[in-house]
Each structure stands twice: as C-alpha cells, then as structure tokens.
Amino acid sequence: MAGRQLYLYSLLSFFCVGLLMVEMVSGTRGPHIGVHISSQFSASGVNQIPMEDVSIQVGSRHQCRDVCGLNVSDRCPFIRTTPDCRSEGGYLNYLEGVFCYFPPDLLPLAVTLYAFWLLYLFLILGVTAAKFFCPNLSAISTVLKLSHNVAGVTFLAFGNGAPDIFSALVAFSDPRTAGLAFGALFGAGVLVTTVVAGGIAILRPFTAASRPFLRDIIFYMVAVFLTFTALYLGRVTLPWALGYLGLYVFYVITVVLCTWIYRWQRRRSLVYSMPGTPEMLSDSEEEPVSSNSYDYSEEYRPLLFYQETTAQILAHALNPLDYRKWRSKSVSWRALKVFKLPVEFLLLLTVPVVDPDKEDGNWKRPLNCLHLVTSPLVLVLTLQSGAYGVYEIGGLLPVWAVVVIAGTAVAAVTFFATSNSEPPRLHWLFAFLGFLTSALWINAAATEVVNILQTLGVVFRLSNTVLGLTLLAWGNSIGDAFSDFTLARQGYPRMAFSACFGGIILNLLVGVGLGCLLQISRSPTAEVKLEPDGLLVWVLAGALGLSLVCSLVSVPLQCFQLSRVYGFCLLLFYGSFLVVALLTEFGVIHLKSV
Predict the structure, then answer these.
(1) Cα-flanking dihedrals φ and ψ of residue 427, to 5°?
(2) Between the CA of residue 455 and those of 17, 77, 86, 89, 99, what are the distances in Å?
(3) Mind giving me the DSSP string for 294-346?
(4) What is the pLDDT averaged over residues 30-34?
(5) What are phi and psi of 47, to 5 degrees?
(6) Mean pLDDT computed over 182-203
(7) pLDDT tens across 244-281, in order?
C-alpha cells in the first residue's frame, strides 16, 4: 500500500513537470483557449468582490494568468501590484516565489519543488485526519453516547471527508478559487463512483445491499441536481445553502430509520422463522466483521510490573516510531514512514488524542499537560493564518504570548492535581481540544494546497476547475481509495462499496452548503454569485450525473451482483471522461460562437 502511494505521488509530480515542459515548448497559449473569465472578475466562482476592488480590476483589465505573456523583467512587479494575484490566506506567497525569487531558467525547478511540497501537504492532510482527527471524533461520539449508525454518517464520515470539506471551504472563501471547490467535489464524485467502485468490483465481485445502495445513490443524485441547478441559476441564496445542510440532516435521519426498520424486521424474522430459514442478509447494512480481541502488543509487555517515570512517559508518548513494526515492514513502507515522522512528531506534540478503548483513555500526564500549552498556541497561530496570534493586546503583549502564559498556568495546576496512572474525570475534554486543534491543522494545510494549485493554474494557464477535478480530487481521494481497496481484499467489498457513496454525499452537501453559508454571512447581498468555468463545469456535472444514472439503471438490472465486467466498464467511463475534460480545457472541444 505504501509503495502504491509513493508511485501515485510520483505520477502527480511528473504530471506537473510534464505540463510545464509542454508549456515551454509550445509557447504561450492565446487567451481564447481554456477557461472563460468574466471581464469583471479574475476567475470564476463566487462573485463577492467589494465594489472598490471590482473597479480596480475593470479599469486595469489585468488577470493574473497574463503574467506568463509578459517580459521576464516585468513579471515580478506585475505579481506584486495586480490585485488578482494576491492571496487571501496562507503563510507563503507561492506566486511571488515563482516569479520573483526564481530566475526564468529555474522555473522547472520551482514547479518541481512546489509539486513535492503539494504531495507533502496531501500527506499531512491524510496523517492528521486518520490518526488525530478521526480518533477524537470517535471519542466524542462515545462521550455523547451516539449509536454506531449515527456516528458513522456524522462524526466519522466528517472525519474521513475532512480534507475534501476543508479544501472546499477554503476554496469558497476566495472568488478566484471557487472553481477549485466545484472541480474537486465533482471530480472526486466521478472518481469515487467509477474508479473506486469499479476497482472494488474487480478485486472482489460481490452482491450489493439493495436498499442502502438505492438510498445513497438517490440522495447523491439529488445533491448533484441541486448543485447543477445552482450553477445554472448562477447564485446560491441563504435558503438554498441551508437546504444543502437540511438535506444532509434528512439523509442522516433516513439512515437511522432504515437501520432501525431493518433490525426490527430481522428480529421479527428470527422470532417467527424455523431453524434453517434464510435470514434477511441481502439488504443488510451491517456486514459481519471478524473481531479479534487479542492485542498483539500483549506479548511485548514485561512479566514484572514496571513503573515508568514522568520523563519516560513523555519520551515514549512523543515517539512516533514503533521499532518492532519498523523491522517487519517493507522498504517502501519505511521510506514513506521517514517522510511521515516529522509530521507525526509535530502532531503528537500539539494534538491530544483520547482513546476510549484503552483502560487509561490514552492518558499521558506529562504530554497532555504540555498539550494545554501547545494546542491553544496552535489555535491562535492557525486562525486567519496567524493574524490573530500576532495581534498585540494594548500594544504590550501579542496574543500568542498571553495564550502561552495562561496555558502554562493551567498545565501546572493539572500536572500537580493528577497522577500518571489514572486519568482525571474531565479527561474527555481533551477529545474536544484535539478535535479543534486537528481541524485547524487540516484547514491550514488545505489553505496551502489551494494556494499552490492556484499558482500552478497561473503557470500552466489551467482553469481552477481542471485543477480541482485532477490534482485536488486525486490527492484527497488517494487515502480513501486504498482504504476501500484494502477492505475489499480482506473480504468486505460491500462495506467498502457503501463507504464510496456515504462519504461523497457528506462532502458535496456540507462542502457546498457550509462553504456558501460562510460566504453569505460575510456578504451584504445575502447570496453567493456563481460563474462556471465555461463548458468544462457542465462536462464535469454531466459526467457525474451520467455515471450515477448508469449505476442506478445497470446495478438493479444485474440483480445487484457487481462483476468484474461492470468494474472495467466504470474504469473505461472515467478514462473517457478524463479525455473529454482535458480536450475541453485545451480548447479542442468547444462551443461554436454564434
């Protein structure tokens, strides 16, 4: 699995460098090819630029993508003075880095470094979501005593889709990058419903659960239709944004009711059925998972009781490397682990994780006390890219210094009021602190991802939509794809297939609904105006709708038995869609002007 991830990461970097070579050999493209850009706005998406900024852009007629057509000596001043080239968030100015600090001859080197940094950001997103965000959400659902079904379609689904959702929220926050959100959400939808679903059917042909499949695909088709209609109308109003979130709440309620009805029918059939009567397994939403309560770490525990010191507890808790696991893994796994180690160490240092399955709830007294200082510090340094953290209170102390002083005081009290062996009664509060801190880490990484993709769009003269449906969709979906493939190989293809649709429903409804709602809250017009990236957005929406309709018709016709032939057909569909999308982006396929 690690080898495949490294292989896909390499493909992404070569994709970026290859595009740059094509751009340098073929010369600059004319402005008539690619995305349609409004005369008033720099890029398609959410139209909410203040009037004074609009007048500046209309008067200058400058768009950031024009920089590649200028003389080398004029590019850096253009980047620094053009409003369209300014980033609204993030810690690094990638456009200025490419055109001001790298000479033109080293442009391929700059793009290669950006490509590898982009891959590392995807790695940060995956590690943070899998090892810190999701476990804390699971602990919160346990604290709130939620059922497995409710937790699965709310907290855990949100944890699995965190990179996609936060990327969409960040993209919607800037009118120039809103096309990334639609491209990524629609692109991930096409990718998951074709490549991932098809791969599962190829690896392990199976019989899909009929009712959950029909329920999920119908809800997803409704969500796609809502988005298609919003793009056609060119705006999202407050009731429309709330409708997205309301539809997701209705979906959660439907899942809970369907599960309750299924269990009631199953109990009733068990009561009235004779021995040997087949049970209602065809429509089951739950698949038996082999439970193995044996903990393999038990064999490494010492026979004699040994009391660790506080310093030893802290050192072990901050060590992200399991030496026994390291010796037994492959070379590719070790190589990927080396890249993960700095990220995991930083996250262990700043994000508490509560594990209800452990006797002590993963209570590490010295580290958790340290988290009371580091976690709030991360919160203030990641909100608005650190703008709040460096603000000086009364012109004396910055906010981050006050947070460190207050956190140190709370940590000292907690340290002397607790013990190493027993967690405190309020230990569950660390789950909420860890959830918030990991969410802001994900948001910070997603902001950098969006800014890098915007920079690559300027360099390669690509629309935000095509970057969203390729690089952003691929990067955010790699982890989920391999997780689903692993489940299929282990004998649970139905579970993996159900996860395909459950996650993308949440990503689309919450990503668009919450993203537009946040923009509406900052807009005086109480609506978000949308400008699609020309024909490409409609190609993307049409391909997603067509794939869903084909699955809705073909799967019942196969009596819900998904074969390898069906899987290969889905892969062929995605390949055809990708070819059409790229041909549309480069102007080969276009609408004739009247």
Answers:
(1) -60, -30
(2) 14, 16, 11, 13, 10
(3) --GGGGGS-SS-----HHHHHHHHT----HHHHHHS-HHHHHHHHHHHHHHHH
(4) 32
(5) -100, 90
(6) 88
(7) 999 999 998 888 888 788 778 878 777 665 554 444 44
DSSP letters for 242-287:
HHHHHHHHHHHHHHHHHHHHHHHHHHHHHHHSPTTPPPS-TT-S--
pLDDT of residue 219: 92
pLDDT of residue 170: 80
Separation of alpha carbons 126 and 340, rounded Å: 10
Distance of CA 22 to the CA centre of its chain: 30
Calpha distance 457→533 (Å, rounded) = 13
Using CA atoms, how far apart are residues 90 and 95, in angstroms rounded to an integer? 12
Distance CA 591, CA 587 (A): 9
- Contact in structure between 427 and 67 (CB atoms under 8 Å): no
Choice among 51-55, 133-137, 530-534 with the minimum mean pLDDT: 51-55
Q: How many residues can be counted in the chain?
A: 594
Q: Which of 76, 46, 78, 51 is nearest to 62 (CA)?
A: 78
Q: What is the pTM of this model?
A: 0.69
Q: Name the token pair of 104.
A: 């033109």
Residue with tokens 């809250």: 521
Residue 204: how many other CB atoms lie within 10 Å: 21
* d(C-alpha 5, C-alpha 478), whole Å: 8
Do residues 65 and 461 touch, judged by C-beta distance below 8 A? yes
Distance CA 432, CA 352 (A): 9
* CA-to-CA dists, residue 391 to 83, 92, 300, 407, angstroms: 25, 19, 50, 18
C-beta neighbour count of 82 within 10 angstroms = 19
534: left (phi over 0), alpha (psi -120 to 50) or beta: left
- Whether 374 has a pLDDT exceeding 90, the answer reads yes
pLDDT at 297: 55
With residue 506 as reference, give the H or E element that holds it. helix 493-521
Q: Distance (Å, rounded) from C-alpha 282 to C-alpha 265?
A: 13
